[in-house]
Design goal:
heterodimer, A: alpha/beta, Rossmann fold, six-stranded mixed β-sheet, three-stranded antiparallel β-sheet, 7 helices, about 35% helix, globular, B: mainly alpha, MetI-like fold, flat
Chain lengths: ~250, ~280
Amino acid sequence: MAVLTVQNLSKTFNLGTARESRVLDDISFEVKGQTFVSIVGPSGCGKSTLLNIISGVEEHTSGDISLTSDAGGPARMGYVFQDPRLLPWRSVMQNMMYVQDDQSPATVSRAKEYLDMVGLAKNADFFPGQLSGGMQQRVGIARAFAVEPDLLLMDEPFSHLDAITARGLREQLQDIWAQSKKTVVFVTHDVVEAVELSDRIIVLQPGGLIYEDITIDLPRPRRQTDKNVATLQAEVLARLEKLKAMSVAEPVA
Amino acid sequence: MTTMQRSAVTKRRSTTEIEQSTPEWQKRLTSETAARVTALLAFVVIWVVMSWLFSRVPGPVEVGERLVDEFSRGEVFGNFGMTLYRFFIGVGLATVVGIAVGVVMGLSQLSRAFLESPVLVGLSIPAIIWSFLTVMWFGFGDMSPIITTFLTAVPFVVINVAQGVRGVSRDLRDMSETYNVPFGRRVRHLVLPAVTGYVAAGVRFAIIMGWNGVLLAEWFGGGGGVGYRARFWYDANRYGGFAAWVVLFVGFIVILDRFVLDRAIQRSFRWRDSR
């Protein structure tokens, strides 16, 4: 099973003329295989930076990151971004295949399978510009799952969508995840979303420190209307309010 | 006493309503085709007037007659074909090399630092200088017009493509990086389609600069071709013959641009029209 280990990770941005901004400060955590972990926290606490470092898009200043793969070879990652990031001049299917290691018929049929799971099998030949924002994001999700990643990173994938579309996609994501059981690190600022989707929530505080690590032990599939989900959401929200109050009283430089 | 309040109601007409109420003659008169035809007619009228005012400006009729003479002498196909051969090899090479160098320049900062100055020097050297140099280097024949066309055109393709590559979306590059998309696939599916517009602009410049190059090289050193025949008539003080060859080649460039390049560009941008 894929295991992500983050040890003493720090990230400092050099702002020039000897000014520095520390975004992540010596954080450590481990994500075991087949776990859905959410990273939550207020804006600017380093959630997206953490994800970009894990994915390799950004360099880290110090610390270690390791990812063991299921197959034993180099670890494979999938990434669902805030915006769909599809090639506008390629069809939906071509976008799915663009990120695949091999272009074999088996991979093509796997890509089709995931498109089918997000309800877009009929739109395989469409250009992204012919799809709505929600449909494009579904392609982004299908693309990420179709590479069969050891680790799937998701950076606020529903934040640009309207509430109804976002809710539908969250439910769809839960269904796909239940079937694939991929290891997921999901960044969000929405506690409601985090409780609904996650096995575990890591709360980051401004300055890039881990404030709290919460285990969510609720049966799946979870829906916002479930009483237990709503209670836990309120509880986590209250803890975050406390963090916010602390941050205002003692602003982190 | 009562006061009456008058409210103004502004009704905005729908596009269907406007379409239906506009007379057919007005639609035709305001169409793009009408604008193009008007521009062509205006050009011909100005040309005719200029030929009336100045004896050394041959009018359209005289130019047409000279062109027919050249056809009947059997000069057109051989010379025009020779120029086209040189022109297409030169522009083709400039396009292929220009895209390759432009992509490298756009992707790597080091290669940009290395190549930027030579490309700028290339841009600033006019076609006439290249034509002199290539005639000195390669003598009379096919080589000097081909190389002149290539050297005149290639910096324009390079600079346009490099500009386009630098403008490729950072988000899409990051996405490709995250998924470890192989370099060749990135160039084919991300970089090249993203720079299509820049490539088209570069090729357009290449065609315009290239035809300057080929004609000048033939003028000074070609043993045949459009430039050679234009010079023949110029030296004979027969401006009608000179203008006939220029009109022939300009007409060809316009047709090439309108019916080949323009359509190819429209085809490559069909994903944009699908929105």
